[in-house]
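Late entry, calcium ion complex.
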Amino acid sequence: MDFLYGLTFTFSLAATFICLSDFCFIKVQNTMGKTQNKFFTLLLMIVAVNGVCTTVSGYYTPTSGSSALSLYIADQARYFYFVIHTALAPVFFFYISHVCGVVFRSNSNKKKYLYFSILALTELLAITNPLTKWVYYRDENGVFTRNWGEAIIYVAAGVFLFLSFKYLYTSWGALNYKRRSGLLMFLGITLIGIVAQLLNTNLKVELFAEAIGLTGVMMVIENEDDRIDTETGLYNRQAFMLDLGGYLANKSSLHAISLRINTPEIISRKSGVANRELAEKKVAEYLETIHRKYNIYKLGRRTFVLVIFGQTDDEAYDLAARIRLRFDKPWQLVDTLVLLEASLLVAKIPEQLETLNDALYMFENFQPDKDRNKILSGSDLDFILRGSAIEKSISNGLAEGKFEVYYQPTFSIDGKTLHGAEALVRLHDDEMGMLYPDEFIPVAENIGLIDAIDDFVLMEVCKLIKNENLEQIVDCINVNLSVIQLMKPGFVDHINGIVEMSGVDKKYINFEVTESISAESYELLNSTINSLKEEGFLFSMDDYGTGYSNMKALASMHLDCIKIDKSILWEAEKSDLGYIILENCVRMIHQMDLDILVEGVETESQIKMLRPLGVNYLQGFYFSKPVPKDDFLKIAKKSDTRSKALSDHQTALLP
Ligand code: C2E
Ligand code: CA
Ligand code: CA
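Prediction complete; structure with ligand written out below:
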């Protein structure tokens, strides 16, 4: 028996020392001081004090010869043990709920009060025990006896543990490996302690097990080194993902304000990286003055996110507006004052952002509004989210064959002889329906998938020409190329490879590119075009009249055709000045000895206007909208060989 008391004594004292040293470590680590950290400290304190109580009551264990004083001390120690130990399960529960990201919303305050009342009730039972003896008492023989009050305390502890497990269960997917293993370790070791103590009630090893478990938790959960951005001391992207994952898993309600600095590169370029870093630090410091530090995250070089609990939409918006105002004033950097340009966005979670990916996409990709002072919120967010959905759709679409090439026939100026077609890509999305290139091509360019799309279109066009013998029927099929792709090294070989493999004669492929590039890029563009032309491809300049129309550069390029943009045609119909512009465009292009295709032809009167000008080809809804391959083949085959005219333009118009 003495040996067991000795062990209990050692284990309990060890538990106290472990918890006290953990406590010192935490103080040194200087945590963020959020509620979670406070609950953890409380857990350490509970175990530490309990360790002292058990040690004392073990030492003064009543024996037949015990003095009145030692009995009194033993009783007091046991009393303190009960009072404090009763709080262990509830505090553990509150700690776990914070680790898991459960936020008791204002409308679920009832729940919060219920939990606190259970805690208060059990504590009351323990505290008043010397008077009531409801929890335990010493019987007439001086033997320690448990009463019904202890059963209630145990049931309450059971409820708190059950709720803790429930939160762990719902948040399991959102917790990272470290947190999971930390919590499992704590629970495993504590369980071993409890079982060992159950097997031998005289061996008080539970507290020691809890202390060891808490040390593990401290190392993997409370140690936040890898969650903190070293430059600013704010939480980093990883911490944001983990925390928001928890909030979403538990359907916690919150607002998030995202702040993007639009000009970090400019600061780096103008006044050095040190100033950029200092600018970020200054912004971080400013944010800390208006919001709790542990709810501010720095996602990347330019993005900060503030997480806000328990506020109305208006209050969250007002906070964003306050931050916006600060950016009207300059920031003091090492040796200079700078004005930083920032964009802000307010999102309501989970209503507006249901997944972590959506949130990251939204916060990291939103572009400033035309009105740069506008704070994006509400329906502005739908637009950004659509971009995210489109990104997903593009990547899935490539793998799952959801892209389809449509063809819009082009005709000679007589309006009857088929000239060819323009290949126009479409994307079928299971949820959003058919997506148009105007919307998804810019996104594809952004995420670097435009090459794959353009390759797909070119391959489809080659297959069509080869399989359907189009070489006998059309002059060429026009294929759009993204300028970004065109500028890449090795582009010409790449394109050659695709077309040569298909066996299609290169003169049936007419590449279209939009003149949306800066003047300094013309040289590179020119040399690529020349190489492609040497290979035998045709080349058209698309959307003429919408860009900068650098005539000199255009004249130096070896193009075959210029496509006049539909806006020029439509304007010509509306006003005299518009007509003069169209007329002059046509004249200039003819002087350069290039063919002209006018797109956007929708009415007969437009054709009548264009004929005297001597343009060569027409394309537009008047003849046909872009149609799927089979419908285009019907049109092409009806037109038969190029010499055979269509009897009536209506035959070309498909439903
Ligand atoms: P674009 O090259 O200027 O293509 C012509 C666009 O004008 C097509 O829109 C076509 O449907 C539309 N259009 C043609 N005739 C008329 C008309 O009479 N009235 C009106 N209102 N519109 C007409 P679409 O198919 O939505 O394509 C939009 C743009 O997407 C294209 O403009 C092109 O820049 C780009 N694009 C399409 N396919 C590809 C592709 O495979 N690769 C690349 N890089 N870009 C593509
Ligand atoms: Ca085009
Ligand atoms: Ca065009």
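The pocket of calcium ion (ligand 2) is lined by residues 422, 480, 512, 542 (CB under 6 Å). Will revisit in the morning.
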